[in-house]
Amino acid sequence: MRPKLGGVLETALYVEDVEASARFYQELFGFERIEGDHRLVALSVLGRQVLLLIRKGSSAGPHQSSGGVIPGSDSSGTSHLTFKIDASDFDAWEKWLGENGVAIESKVPWERGGRSLYFRDPDNHLLELATPGTWAIY
Amino acid sequence: MRPKLGGVLETALYVEDVEASARFYQELFGFERIEGDHRLVALSVLGRQVLLLIRKGSSAGPHQSSGGVIPGSDSSGTSHLTFKIDASDFDAWEKWLGENGVAIESKVPWERGGRSLYFRDPDNHLLELATPGTWAIY
Predict the structure, then answer these.
(1) Domain containing A84: what range?
(2) Could you tell me the CATH number of the domain that includes residue A102?
(3) A93/B3 Cβ within 8 A
(4) B104 CA to chain A: closest CA distance, Å?
(5) pTM
(6) Parallel, antiparallel, or unpaired for β A126-130 and B8-15?
């Protein structure tokens, strides 16, 4: 029988400059830095999830931690990540992105009534803010 | 003032074969398929998040949806994703992975008392199951 699972904990983005990326996510979204070195910065997504910013090329091979071996991963190109926002905060997010010099690449209304804002992080990763009514489960 | 944010909604993995990947995540984790075509499959992570499996090369450019343009993203290599599990389910997950023919690449105990299991998906993306005591916030 399949054991229980509790949802997403960590999601990773592979970036050129971990400090520049960390500043972007900290300032724009208010994520707090919980760990970090020259290779990897871990940000708390409001105490719910962890966003890992990993320097490209730095983690392709296994990494020895105090407890054991962390197997490698390394990715290039642009990935995608979406955060939940309330419908009542949609306009405020649009304004906040503008005030922070972040260009909105697209605004999409969905059939279920939700709306999305699309924009880019410093590595051109595609970020999205979505209100409820985007998916059958959200 | 920075508007409110509600945590991670969507996280994406870029894969060779969306159907093979979807089967892997559905069978191993019990994620339900909520949308899908030859290009992209969306799985519900227990109604909490959405895992997007995107065929490599299929979404590099903008995509016209009924509501508007979804900007492109495309990634190669191996990414990383972690799911939360209870400490009391650690052994059951180890057994379940074995029963499903998934090789465990590493088992790591953390200083805070948590433990992680590392293994691979069909595209060699690095998956992790982590119990509480892994991060300051978890």
Answers:
(1) 78-138
(2) 3.10.180.10
(3) yes
(4) 10
(5) 0.97
(6) unpaired
